[in-house]
Amino acid sequence: MTTEMQEIAITEEKPLLTGQAESKDVELAARILLDQGQEHSIETPHGVLHVTLHGTRTTRRPAILTFHDAGLDSKSCFSPLFKFEEMQEIVKNFTVIHVDAPGQEEGAAAYPSGYQYPTMDIMADMLPSVLQFFNFRTVIGVGVGVGAYILSKFALANPDSVEGLVLVNIDTNARGWIDWAAQKLVSVTSSLTEQIMSHLFSQEELSATTELVKFHRERISKASNLVNIELFWKTYNSRRDLNIDRNSTFKCPVMLVVGDQAPYEEAAVECNSKMDPTTTSFLKMADAGGLPQLTQPAKLTEAFKYFIQGMGYMASSCMTRLSRSRTTSLSSSYSMDGSRSRSRTLSQGSQGGQMPPSSSQTMEVSC
Fold first, then answer.
1. Which residue, 37, 103, 268, 289, has fewest beta-carbon neighbours within 10 Å?
2. pLDDT tens, 253-310?
3. What would the 3-class secondary structure string for the chain be?
């Protein structure tokens, strides 16, 4: 009897250990794959989009869909933010889809001379194909600069597909005649690299020649797809006015973000004045410069957490130590009312608890 019991124990022990080892190997491989992202080339009616997906492809929640700025690609624009330690609390609960504008991804082949680059409208029209490819019904859009404009076009044309928008350095206006003439002069006197650098960074940052400025200046000037970057840049400068006002605006909650020294601070302030104050928050970040997602990822992560929480997708108990300790830096609370059944109350308090809704929509972050 004893011998039989020992034999049974031995025969059961080996597959159990082997199974555990295989499970750990699979888990490790999956973690590495998710960290690197899964790259896809998605066919759309207007051409191919390069897209990188992070996280599990669960459609129970909206995906977080990002779109980058001119002179950047999805990696250089968003990797520091989405790899930030405190951001992992959000990332692990959502699928993140990084979209590269045509020909802007790292290592993209240069377009031939005379290539007709898609307009802002066409690029916005390419995004529904991305949602269909991954079987997502809705997204939360996060856009910077040019990407913010494109996501705005997409949200206005497809309101049922967008549950929320985070727009960094948004400029909803077309270039006026004075701006057009100034751009023509700049294009003659300045290189493409310097034009884009002035778009991405404040004059203070450019004068200080920070390491971030040096890195991106060299990266852009030596890019193998510089001709593609120029086409993307020129297309943005030919954009049309979004014609947003309080009677004709987004149907979802919106968070506008800009650094207090950013080139587009005035444009963001003007955009805020046109928005519905009951569904819009305006986050002006002190000492953030032109790319707050790169220079101030902690503050932007905190604000994004509150935004997600206000949409009902993240419980307040999930807030990290960073969120609780920094809530004093967010100087107002706001509520967002609408037709959706989810709660849209987004609030901050000095101890991380909730406060009564306030009519103020501006958050001045000075920490």
1. 37
2. 999 999 988 999 999 999 999 999 999 999 999 888 899 999 999 999 999 999 999 9
3. CHHHHHHHHHHHHHHHHHHHHHHHHHHHHHHHHHHHCEEEEEEECCEEEEEEEECCCCCCCCEEEEECCCCCCHHHHHHHHHCCHHHHHHHCCCCEEEEECCCCCCCCCCCCCCCCCCCHHHHHHHHHHHHHHHCCCCEEEEEECHHHHHHHHHHHHCHHHEEEEEEECCCCCCCCHHHHHHHHHHHHHCCHHHHHHHHHCCHHHHHHCCHHHHHHHHHHHCCCCHHHHHHHHHHHHCCCCCCCECCECCCCCEEEEEECCCCCHHHHHHHHHHCCCCCEEEEEECCCCCCHHHHCHHHHHHHHHHHHHHCCCCCHHHCCHHHHHHHHHCCCCEECCCCCCCCCEECCCCCCCCCCCCCCCEEEECC
